[in-house]
Amino acid sequence: xxxxxxxxxxxxxxxxxxxxxxxxxxxxxxxxxxxxxxxxxxxxxxxxxxxxxxxxxxxxxxxxxxxxxxxxxxxxxxxxxxxxxxxxxxxxxxxxxxxxxxxxxxxxxxxxxxxxxxxxxxxxxxxxxxxxxxxxxxxxxxxxxxxxxxxxxxxxxxxxxxxxxxxxxxxxxxxxxxxxxxxxxxxxxxxxxxxxxxxxxxxxxxxxxxxxxxxxxxxxxxxxxxxxxxxxxxxxxxxxxxxxxxxxxxxxxxxxxxxxxxxxxxxxxxxxxxxxxxxxxxxxxxxxxxxxxxxxxxxxxxxxxxxxxxxxxxxxxxxxxxxxxxxxxxxxxxxxxxxxxxxxxxxxxxxxxxxx
Length: 356
Fold this sequence. Notes:
By secondary structure, the chain is of the alpha/beta class.
């Protein structure tokens, strides 16, 4: 039988490159792998392009771009400078030329921490101001007992927590004890009160009952310092932690305004009353409103503000000499504690300025 390809009257068709198909590998005449793009002259490739084919997947192995131009070599592993871009004297973006990764300062919300039983005990013995101490629940040894005793005498809150809590606080070897170092030093309230009377000043204090939000606490401290408050009084338990966020929100007021941390606000109120200071509670349960009531704030006064959730605790409210509320006519019968404190402190400052 005659082979159709041997017919002399049938011209031989020229050899054409195969059409690129996804997933197929093609080779040139020298049995070298080529990419489908090299068979498409209209898209930048050529049938006789002798460039080695790039491996499949992301990126390529050669130092040429898609049009054959040379480009900088890929940096070796460990180089932190951005690849594939020339760097001028002003840096890649016109700014300072600096590495891609660098050590940056800690955020404003950071706070120093102590780890281990022995370092925390030494810090308490040295008189360092600690904000709060976390101890591993169930640990019983002499160091834990000494830490609890020293913290109780200093009015520092100690909380027994599971190991998961300590692991979430730090990944270091905490040995079952983590403590937060306070960024400020607390002042004794009795020294503040006696010092004000000795200097001939009229005491103006602010008591905060269980204010837990650090930003509310910082805003209140800023307002109090601007309106002439002499000191803040907070409980040792249930109060907001004074950290970087509180310092930032206070705009530096916590570095100026003394803060007194007391174990019991009940005893604090009784001490202030015995010292001749009138305790005024700001509560929505009061019958008289601020401004409408004929209350003289020109004398020694201590304003008492409650928590964000349930206000002043009933036992503290029963000890107050005067109870006032902020007049409100809107549909939302609630104010932020920072706003309410600002209104109350403004009324005291207004009367004092008018009397001077």
